[in-house]
Amino acid sequence: MKIISAPDYQSMSRKAANIISAQVILFPDSVLGLATGSTPLGVYQQLIDWYKKGDLDFSKVRSVNLDEYCGLAGDHEQSYRYYMNTNFFKHINISMENTYVPNGMAQDVDAECRRYDKIINDLGGIDLQLLGIGHTGHIGFNEPDEDFDKMTHCVKLKQKTIDANSRFFERVDQVPKYAITMGIKAIMQAKKLLLVANGENKADILCRSLFGPVTPKVPASILQLHNDLTVVADEAALSLIRSKYPEAIG
Ligand code: GLP
Asked: How far apart are the C-alpha atoms of 66 and 183, rounded to whole Å?
């Protein structure tokens, strides 16, 4: 595990974007695992800027997103498909048919989960997976549980997650209660993992995830077992790690 500290959000975003950028330059047909939430927005913005300057080419890139809310269509403003299209895909030269997000409107959710696992499998797995972290320690929407859920599955969102994500909706009761998420297996089989975190309110969960016991009660703790994990976080998110394990920060 490599922990890279950044003084602020903008710097965190640029450092993380640099890692993705290197991946795309070295391996233009990479399979990128992508994440949503407010944390990666600056990363996408930076990649868009470099693309517009002519430094990046996404024409051969394939992407698979971590998750999608159940019951939201791709044109719903709070769906993750809409987020990806508006915050990233439509500003770069990726082919839309090479971008995959679970279908939140699938009638047969189990079939959709199996379809999504097959997509990831057919792509040959993920080369670089970008991750944010939820306050419950979730990655994608893998919420705390008794076991690590390996395959793509439907998950009942924790109230803490619903409350945190309600900031994007007009009312908390509009936040979907269920989501489809990539499972722990596809995430852990990604060749490289890049976790981004910012803000003091992530300090506790980041420290528990990276230095606490590996347990499905803190899903992100499984990342400790990956052999190519890079964490890029701002000083606020690293504050607890800085005070407890200063030597861990590179
Ligand atoms: C959502 C997403 C996660 C994301 C998390 C944190 O629940 N499903 O993939 O990491 O939110 O979001 P934020 O970056 O807004 O704190």
From this structure: 8
